[in-house]
Amino acid sequence: MVLASLDQFNGTATKPRLSVFCSDKQLYAMVVDDQNKRCLFYGSTLQKSIRQDPSGTTIEAAQRVGEELVKACIDLDINEISSYDRNGLARGDRMRAFDIAISRHGFLPR
């Protein structure tokens, strides 16, 4: 059994961890405060509020997930994330669209 390092879970209320999972068809994103064990934002390409137009692509929806994440962070006065966990899947058009949406607002760690 492999135990995760405590450094891996380092999100706080003001500097949370961003976790993104991209399946074969969808994208899921969470902003997590690990210290208080709280999810500050959750969004996915499956949500009707993000999908908007049923004929829209999952790439467009992934971009909207990123835009909604940025809005939520601004509302919560979050200016920076502690880490960006892509769950080992860092390729594809959905990930690229999501990354572009959040990088426009400086939410990618340096």
Automatic annotation (TrEMBL):
GO biological process assignments: translation
Keyword Ribonucleoprotein in record: yes
GO molecular function, one term: 5S rRNA binding
Leader sequence segment: none
Cited CDD domains: Ribosomal_L18_L5e
InterPro entries: Ribosomal_L18 (IPR057268), Ribosomal_uL18_bac/plant/anim (IPR005484)
Key words of the record: Ribonucleoprotein, Ribosomal protein
Domain of life: Eukaryota
Pfam families tied to this protein: Ribosomal_L18p (PF00861)
GO CC list: ribonucleoprotein complex; ribosome
Sequence similarity: Belongs to the universal ribosomal protein uL18 family.
Name the record gives this protein: DH200=94 genomic scaffold, scaffold_12090
Species for this entry: Coffea canephora (Robusta coffee)
